[in-house]
Amino acid sequence: MPTTQFKALKSAPLKTGSSFVRPVQNLPDRVKLGSPASDVMTDLTKISVVSVRAKTSMDRANAKMIKYGVRMLLVLDDNEQIAGLITASDILGEKPMRFLQNMGGTHADIMVRDIMTTQRELEVLNIQDVKAATVGDIVASLKQANRQHSLVASEVDGRQLVCGLFSITQIARQLGAQVQSFELARTLSEIEAVIARG
């Protein structure tokens, strides 16, 4: 087709202070234990995961969590593959002190790779199982695994792709619990208190 049939669109200068659209996932404010698990899953096909490199300093990773309002970052290697994950509990808990006791150095020397949960230690839930699950099933899974977060994966052409994640604090908020702490045991007891109230 000759390009003479087409008309160029009018353009305008980009204004100072312009931003850009970011993907948003709107989860329901309130759920029940019998609600579909998808009502509490961060769907990575709808919202971008916040990630960090394994060679990033722990302090920069913590600052990134604060900036984005998250308590977990996926850790990527130089090939954009998942190397592990790091949580606020990893940064604010005992792991940094144990690392310094064993390796020496200062707090500023600690890298994400030094305290993260490595890929070999991670387990994932299958997206097909999640699609048939309830919020209560996810709470039971997190409790059994003794984890605050769970990754969800799908299989595409024989490759595993992380496509979602669950956070116990997010679930607790959506169930109506007053989340005062980010400790797993406390959050689970807050969820149980909500359940007891009916």
Compact overview of the structure:
This protein is α/β, with parallel strands linked by helices.
Large-scale geometry: globular
Name the CATH class: Alpha Beta
Mean pLDDT: 89
What is the CA-based Rg, rounded?
21 Å
Quick one: biggest sheet?
4 strands, mixed
CATH topology: the name is CBS-domain
Listing every helix as H and every strand as E from the N terminus to the C terminus, the arrangement reads: EEHEEHHHEEHHEEHH
CATH superfamily: CBS-domain
The CATH architecture is Roll
Looking across the biggest beta sheet, what order are the strands in? 1-8-7-6
The residue fraction in helices comes out at: 25-40%
Structural description of this entry:
The strands form 2 sheets. The chain has a 4-stranded mixed sheet with strand order 1-8-7-6. It has a 4-stranded mixed sheet with strand order 2-3-4-5. A hairpin with a 5-residue loop joins strand 3 (72-76) and strand 4. It has 8 helices and 8 strands. With 198 residues, the protein is α/β, with parallel strands linked by helices. The mean pLDDT is 89. The chain is globular, with a radius of gyration of 21 Å.
Describe the secondary structure blueprint for this structure.
Layout: E1 42-43, E2 51-53, H1 58-68, E3 72-76, E4 82-87, H2 88-92, H3 95-103, H4 112-115, E5 117-118, E6 124-126, H5 127-131, H6 135-145, E7 149-156, E8 159-167, H7 168-175, H8 184-197
Parallel strand pairs: 2-3, 6-7
Antiparallel strand pairs: 1-8, 3-4, 4-5, 7-8
Helix pairs in contact: 7-8
Keywords:
four-stranded mixed beta sheet, CBS-domain, 8 helices, alpha/beta, 198 residues, 19% strand
